[in-house]
Amino acid sequence: MAFLLKVLDFDIGTSNIAFIFLEELLVQFKEVARVGEFVSFEACMDLMDLLYEKEETTILYRSPRSLAASVLVAAYVITTPKQRCEFPVLSWVNFVTSIKEDDVVESVGEILKHVFEPR
Domain of life, per the record (predicted)? Predict the structure, then answer.
């Protein structure tokens, strides 16, 4: 079986698991918050792509679930208009994932530095 998966180039690495968590979180977020409509799946995927362009960036995250939660919060911060940012996204992410708010804030800070740093 492992040989067949290798021949098919099947990969179930951290990025794939984080992708699944991110997709689930985004669906849940859109169900509970009207501002969730501002956070597009494409924006989240763009952030994931930027993070994986530098391999050392991926070691900053404690788990695929933590990475997914941080990407969702970063996408929320970037894409939601300032006057609509009233949803307590950090508390919600903590409630849904049990990831400490401080850990998410730290990771989001790193994501935003990576996204907005001059190239």
Answer: Eukaryota
